[in-house]
Structure formats: C-alpha cells, structure tokens
C-alpha cells in the first residue's frame, strides 16, 4: 500500500513538472525576453531557479538578489555586456518572489511549489 501512495504522489508531481516545462517552452513574455536578449547558455540556470527554486550560480544569485555591484563582479564577458537587460528581465518578467528572498523561494520550490497541492 505504501508503494501505491508513493507512486500516486510521484505521478501527480511529474504531471505538474511536465505542466511547468510545457509552460516554460510555450510562448510567454518571460522566455521570449530571455531568448531574445540574454545569453542562451544562461537559460537552464534561470529556468531551474524560477520554476523549481534550484539555486543558480553566483552571477544569477546576485542578479536575482538585486545586488548590482556583485552582479558586475561575477559576470562573465557576455553577461557583463547585458547587465541592463538582466535588470529589466528581473524587474519586468521574473516572478516577484524569485528576487525577494532566496531562502523562501528555494524552500517553496519556486513556481512549482506555488501550484495547488
């Protein structure tokens, strides 16, 4: 019986994960801005942080924490050229909870944790 409930919960969670992945891949302002304005290799870190609360690397942590000086210090040669675009992304497109308190966002598993249980 224990296995039945585990499989049931896992199936529900996987369905929700698939739902979140589909939303990310679909047409929305967040991913559109990301694809058009920011380095493509940053998408997985942004996606993990926003959808599931997976802590990103040091540069993205600084960006989402709104720490401008640290963002500049941790940016690579490509990201330093688009710091303004990162600021616009966080301000206009990222969910507000993703940049307010990293501990809370991680604990609640990003947007995934906000889905109805």
Beta-sheet strand percentage? Answer: under 5%
Give the N-to-C terminal Cα separation: 21 Å
Radius of gyration: 16 Å
Q: What class do helices, strands and sheet pairing give?
A: mainly alpha
- Helix percent reads over 70%
Please explain how this structure is put together.
The chain is mainly alpha-helical and 117 residues long. Helix content is 71%, strand content 0%. It contains 9 helices and no strands. Helix 2 runs antiparallel to helix 6 and helix 4 (58-64) runs antiparallel to helix 5 (68-74).
Output the keywords.
117 residues; mainly alpha; 9 helices
How are the SSEs placed, and which strands pair?
Elements lengths: L1 H24 L3 H9 L5 H10 L5 H7 L3 H7 L8 H11 L3 H4 L1 H6 L2 H5 L3
What does this entry show, briefly?
The protein has 117 residues and is mainly alpha-helical. The protein has helices spanning 2-25, 29-37, 43-52, 58-64, 68-74, 83-93, 97-100, 102-107, 110-114. The chain is built from 9 helices and no strands.
């Amino acid at each position: 019986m224990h296995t039945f409930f585990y499989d049931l919960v896992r199936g529900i969670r996987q369905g929700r994960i698939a739902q979140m992945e589909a939303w990310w891949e679909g047409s929305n302002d967040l991913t559109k801005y990301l694809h058009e304005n920011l380095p493509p290799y940053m998408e997985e870190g942004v996606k993990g942080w926003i959808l599931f609360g997976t802590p990103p690397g040091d540069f993205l942590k600084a960006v989402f924490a709104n720490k401008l000086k640290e963002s500049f210090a941790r940016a690579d040669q490509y990201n330093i050229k688009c710091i303004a675009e990162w600021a616009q992304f966080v301000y206009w497109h990222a969910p507000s909870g993703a940049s307010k308190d990293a501990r809370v966002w991680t604990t609640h598993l990003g947007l995934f944790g906000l889905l109805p249980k």
